[in-house]
Amino acid sequence: MEISQRKKKILAALVELYIETAEPVGSKVLAQRAGLGCSSATIRNELAELSAMGYLNQPHTSAGRVPTVQGYRLYVNELMERQRLSAEETERLNRELAQRLMALDNLVSDIGQFASQITDLPALAIAAPRAVTIVRFDFIYVDVNTFIMVALLSDNSVKNKLIRLPVSVEKLKIDKLSTLMNANFTGLREDQITQPLISATERALDDMTGLTAVAASFAIEALTQASQPGSFVGGQNRLLHHPEYQDPDKAHALMSFLNQAPMEFPQLMNGETGVKVIVGPENVSEALRDSSVVLATYDAGDGVRGVVGVVGPTRMDYAVVAGKMQLIAQTISNALGTGGLKPPSGMDNKLMIRGEDTIE
Amino acid sequence: MEISQRKKKILAALVELYIETAEPVGSKVLAQRAGLGCSSATIRNELAELSAMGYLNQPHTSAGRVPTVQGYRLYVNELMERQRLSAEETERLNRELAQRLMALDNLVSDIGQFASQITDLPALAIAAPRAVTIVRFDFIYVDVNTFIMVALLSDNSVKNKLIRLPVSVEKLKIDKLSTLMNANFTGLREDQITQPLISATERALDDMTGLTAVAASFAIEALTQASQPGSFVGGQNRLLHHPEYQDPDKAHALMSFLNQAPMEFPQLMNGETGVKVIVGPENVSEALRDSSVVLATYDAGDGVRGVVGVVGPTRMDYAVVAGKMQLIAQTISNALGTGGLKPPSGMDNKLMIRGEDTIE
DNA sequence: TGCTGGCACTCTTTTCTTTCGAGTGCTAAT
DNA sequence: ATTAGCACTCGAAAGAAAAGAGTGCCAGCA
User: How far: A5 CA to C6 C1' (Å)?
Assistant: First the structure.
């Protein structure tokens, strides 16, 4: 059965009204608001048909209508106009986000926080795991029993670790360790660092104090941490703004789910890119059945790809939220994806700067 | 007016019963539970007096009694026995915490998370700011337009930054920069790095590409970040377990406050050390009037001191919570305060390891 | 044929009353 | 001093009545 133009118009108006008020929508208000010149009786007939087709629902006989999942789905897919943010708005958000992105190490948490803030919903952000290797080692000899290990990774991050030895060690040995580590451990993925390799290096160094083990575990740690998918979850308190989470049990269940299983979200994208809306019961996870999810993928270059998303009531303003998520994804990809950060204004103009984070 | 031994006993029983049930406590249950052999009528007389003295309150004429702030205060100060955790319990918690403390860089967040977990309340942890200086700089020349800056700080943390130049630079110049930075910038606090100093260094380096400015801003950043008080707030969702936060507005107000003003908590300690309980309306902040706060100070050595605390309903189990907070504070101080972490078992046995974090 | 006003009907929400019961305060007896 | 007993109070729970929103359907009209 096809759906007439007028029905679509009515459905769209109904969904938007419901999003606004959180109350079942009656034919009367709809007739006033819908903008198509016909009476409430006509609307009633149309509503009855839309109900029969499965797009609408009545909580009880004498109540207004509420969209079903199918209704939402139609709205999201065809009816809604993704909110065009005003030029200033876009500009403002862009600037704000760009500012956050200046510091690269907390990319994931920055993105998540930003998403939460502008949508007033709990948000999460996940960075896809990536295979990294160590490009070079440097060992800085500080004093007779202190040195610093520095590793430059293939993703341009830098990790370091300060080592304080209970025994003294000569600078020469540290230098030799450096040479050996650079010779044996660079270009390897985490899983390629094996015990035999470590033992061989230890023999080559001719040292029994465990120096090699320390260096090796540093390498492993650095790689482990760099290739771990970062994740961020936050803004849960914003849930409580929305009437559907008045029931503390519901709110708590969702919050706990967010905290415990953020890693389940990326697979909801199914490998697709762009913005994806998942309406309430379409969700596989039990805990999300009452809530909708809006996800977007981003690509920050250097193989740093990920997913950012927000979770909210089924009755959320999809048009606005989806618009904002798209903006975020685009801004990130624009700002970082093409390689390199635009330098800030001021004295640093002449140089590209990239800060890094470290292990432990 | 002094307070009889029996009154104290009754008050303690009442507070504990109220903590358990969250309902006003009547004379009847109290007579059964209190363990002192007297009838409900006697208890009623005593309760009436305790009410007159300001320790108890009646929500309405025909309801049971509820402790007032004053009542709680007396309970906390004199009556409660700080929960002695069982030996295994203590052992288990100790081990768990010690494990977390292995990684030093997220000390604050680890402590906070731990506190939240074992008390089932939202928690926060704040590290006191400390004055740090840079002990030494190292500049690692990677290739013709890439180098890494490494700074060892007086608190034994290491910061680094990868710099990618749009122009090429010789290793010699980087070495010279290193010498100059070590000569001019070590031992300084953040506020002692002035523009004239930077300019002088720039002249000495005889370079117009802005290298000096980059190095200087790195130094400033490193110091700023290291001396910033770290803070952690988390576990807000646990609030919803407790009936007094059924009202989403209340829950939300408190959560927002925690997120926005965590820095207000340390000053509640007034410079004291140990465990401090602040009962509901004793709080200065409006947002905390309905909630109680249990704070503890910790000292992790190396000048890393801070405050860890939990927030919950006025009717919280002070005995247990205070006991646990004390345990945390003590464990941290024991494990770290005396200097150095006990090494983990295994291959690292021979060395003391201390990981670090970095800027940006 | 499609739209509209009108109207009876349904079911929730709100409001008001009534009942119920926990707990008190007081008094008289021990 | 302690206790049993009892009238009283006041909130909470239960029940009844009224209000209101919205529907479905019908008959009339373009």
Answer: 28
